[in-house]
């Protein structure tokens, strides 16, 4: 009876081994495949991180964003040689202008009145 139990036990364990354990070549192939997949996955993650890092550097260099921004620009102050009220101002704020373009027009009446007074003032001095 003990012999029969041992034989049945051996058969069950052999049967279990056959079902559970694939051939050795197949195990090697699975291990190699897992290693290959793991390496490619690691390389992909590192490459994706490098590409995203370069993208962030590019974006932050070429399109900077901040809440505490200050703009430094060329500011050119202009002043007329004569004083008087402006009649017309044909340009808008921050508009680009070319050399020779009309920036403003001063009331001619004020200029002619001041021109008429100047000789008198220079004689009194």
Describe the structure.
With 125 residues, the protein is mainly alpha-helical. Among the domains are: 18-62; 86-124, no CATH class. It has 3 helices and 2 strands. The protein has helices spanning 2-20, 24-62, 108-124; strands at 86-88, 105-106. Strands 1-2 form a two-stranded antiparallel ribbon. It starts with a helix and ends with a helix. The mean pLDDT is 77.
Strand order of the largest sheet: 1-2
Strand residue percentage: under 5%
Q: What overall form do the CA principal axes indicate?
A: rod-shaped
Low-confidence regions: none
How many separate helices? 3
Number of strands: 2
Helical/strand content category: mainly alpha
- Mean pLDDT, as a whole number? 77
Helical fraction equals 55-70%
Query: What is the terminal separation in angstroms?
Result: 146 Å
Largest sheet: 2 strands, antiparallel
Order of helices and strands: HHEEH
Radius of gyration: 45 Å
Write the layout of secondary structure elements.
Layout: H1 2-20, H2 24-62, E1 86-88, E2 105-106, H3 108-124
Antiparallel strand pairs: 1-2
């Amino acid at each position: 009876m003990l012999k029969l139990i041992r034989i049945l036990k051996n058969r069950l364990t052999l049967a279990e081994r056959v079902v559970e354990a694939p051939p050795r070549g197949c195990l090697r192939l699975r291990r190699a495949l897992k290693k290959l997949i793991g390496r490619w996955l690691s390389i992909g993650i590192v490459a994706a991180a490098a590409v995203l890092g370069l993208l962030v550097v590019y974006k932050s260099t070429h399109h900077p964003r901040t809440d505490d921004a200050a703009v430094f620009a060329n500011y050119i102050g202009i002043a007329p040689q004569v004083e008087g009220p402006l009649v017309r101002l044909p340009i808008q704020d921050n508009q680009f202008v070319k050399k020779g373009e009309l920036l403003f027009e001063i009331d001619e009446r004020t200029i002619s009145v001041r021109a008429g007074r100047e000789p008198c003032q220079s004689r009194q001095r």
